[in-house]
Write a structure and sequence with these properties.
The protein has about 475 residues and is α+β, with helices and mostly antiparallel strands. The protein is built from 15 helices and 16 strands. Bound molecules: 4-amino-1,4-dioxobutan-2-aminium adenosine-5'-monophosphate and magnesium ion.
Length: about 475
């Protein structure tokens, strides 16, 4: 095997050193053979752009070129020269060519043509090799980095919260069980129920739905912390915005009230968008073009009113609207689609939970900018949210985005021990299991707040992808855990 010390295509294209000798490795996107040269478009994933590789057929033989097809892997060494062709500045004239791995054109599923996203979901092991999915992977990486940079620069500490937990933070009961008991023959109690005392942890355990409760423990000592981890929900919702396994960014801050919480959420979202615009320009340009092509096939009413970059700038440049749930319900109740019975879930009274159609109406039609809704009825929110003086609403705040609906859910937390205990009892949250959470309100309690940003929903927004299954490499959804 010849020396593989290679230069990445991104590096070569950024500042091409014409006349230099470089080794480049990658996968073949396309091959075109003319009289005595072959042109190969090679991509190594370091950029959306391919490099054009020019192979002299007389020098290298037609046999090897005949074996090179889309999907094959190559290592090529040659001279970087200015490209006479349009569409690229630089090309590589090959001195040495190594076919590292062949790809049989009759079997390789990714042909140089447009494949549907549905088809590519079934080929998730290879879809990284398409322009769309490599662009999304790079944007996703940039956003992970930006999240850590944002919080680090503000003096927040990242804490790892557990993935296996004994408590249901959201109280929604949509958890995946973690157990080593034999499902066919579990140890039983006298009453016939499963005896989890004999299970691995000596109690019932699940995959976490949120790192919030543990993040609160961190905030109540370190002041400002965040957790960024995988979360799991066994809700059977087959929508374009739900995954059974998704990643959530959850900051938790001592000495923050709900207004400070909203300020931080807005600042973070804008920071992430600005970071993407600055650092992912090539990928966003590609994704924008992709979206515009898709739009052409859509019905008028499903079309996105804005081009991708325009949409991102729009969020960046506008202040988010802040309204209470009560105000939101008034707007919705009197809205045209509600009166004309166009909503799938009509809004008739205060207390109704908002669906994404309502959230999107507020954002896209009414205010035409992101909206933060606060002070929801306590009955439709989690037990840990601070109860308002009216004893009817809680200090919740949801950030609603165009295309997505709810992108962030958060609140000021109930810091009063007695009120929290009362709420837990009202909502049948097992206080015995959460004794440690309650103790923080007994010892040096302080006002504090936090929120959760669904990372994949953010990536959907930034990349313009319509289905959440396309912004995580290996989606987990009902009936689907391949790869
Ligand atoms: O509103 P949620 O359920 O809030 C919490 O879990 C709180 N513990 C957060 C906190 O205050 N620390 O979820 C937060 C966000 C939602 O706004 C949404 O963006 C995302 O997580 N999310 C999902 N994303 C993908 N698939 C799902 N099934 C999701 N469920 C929630
Ligand atoms: Mg929520």
């Amino acid at each position: 095997m010849k020396d593989l010390k290679r230069t990445k295509i991104a590096t070569v294209l950024k500042t091409p050193e014409f006349g230099s000798i470089k080794t480049i490795c990658g996968w073949v996107r396309t091959k075109r053979v003319s009289k005595n040269v072959a042109f190969i478009a090679l991509n190594d994933g370091s950029t959306i752009h391919n490099i054009q590789v020019v192979v002299d057929l007389e020098k290298h033989g037609e046999e090897i070129i005949a074996e090179i097809h889309s999907g094959a892997s190559l290592s090529v060494k040659g001279e970087l020269t200015e490209s006479p062709g349009s569409g690229q500045v630089v090309e590589l004239h090959v001195h040495e060519l190594n076919l590292l791995g062949k790809a049989d054109p009759d079997e390789y599923p990714l042909q140089p043509k447009r494949h549907t996203l549905e088809f590519l979901r079934e080929k998730a092991h290879l879809r990284f090799r398409t322009n769309t999915f490599s662009a999304i992977a790079r944007v996703r990486h940039a956003m992970i980095f930006a999240v850590h940079k944002f919080f680090n620069d503000k003096g927040f500490y990242n804490i790892h919260t557990p993935i296996i937990t004994g408590s249901d933070a959201e109280g929604a009961g949509e958890m995946f069980r973690v157990s080593t008991l034999d499902p066919k023959n579990p140890p039983l109690n006298e009453d016939g129920s499963v005896n989890f005392k004999e299970d691995f942890f000596g109690k019932e355990t699940n995959l976490t739905v949120s790192g919030q409760l543990e993040a609160e423990l961190g905030a109540l000592a370190l002041s400002e912390v965040y957790t960024f981890g995988p979360t799991f929900r066994a809700e059977n919702s087959n929508t374009t915005r739900h995954l059974a396994e998704f990643w959530m960014i959850e900051p938790e801050m001592a000495f923050y009230d709900i207004h400070d919480d909203m300020d931080l959420a807005e600042e973070m979202l804008k920071y992430l968008i600005a970071y993407a615009l600055e650092n992912c320009a090539d990928d966003l340009a590609f994704l924008s073009q992709r979206q515009q092509n898709e739009e052409k096939n859509k019905k008028e009413e499903d079309r996105s009113p804005m081009e991708l970059k325009e949409k991102l700038l729009f969020v960046l440049e506008n202040e988010f609207e802040r309204i209470t749930y009560t105000e939101a319900i008034d707007i919705l109740r009197n809205s045209k689609p509600n009166k004309k019975k166009k909503f799938q879930f009509p809004i008739d009274q205060w207390g109704a939970d908002m669906q994404s159609e309502h959230e999107r109406y507020l954002v896209e039609k009414h205010f035409k900018r992101p909206v933060i809704v606060t002070d929801y009825p306590k009955d439709i929110k989690a037990f840990y949210m601070k109860v308002n003086a009216d004893n009817k609403t809680v200090r919740a705040m949801d950030v609603l985005f165009p295309q997505i609906g709810e992108i962030i859910g958060g609140s000021q937390r109930e810091e009063n021990y007695d009120t929290l205990l009362k709420r837990m009892r009202e909502m049948s949250v097992p206080e015995k299991e959460l004794w440690w959470y309650l103790e923080t309100r007994k010892f040096g309690t302080v006002p504090h707040s936090g929120f959760g940003l669904g990372f994949e929903r953010m990536i959907q927004f930034i990349t313009g992808m319509g289905n959440i299954r396309d912004v995580i490499p290996f989606p987990r959804t009902p009936q689907n855990a391949e790869f």
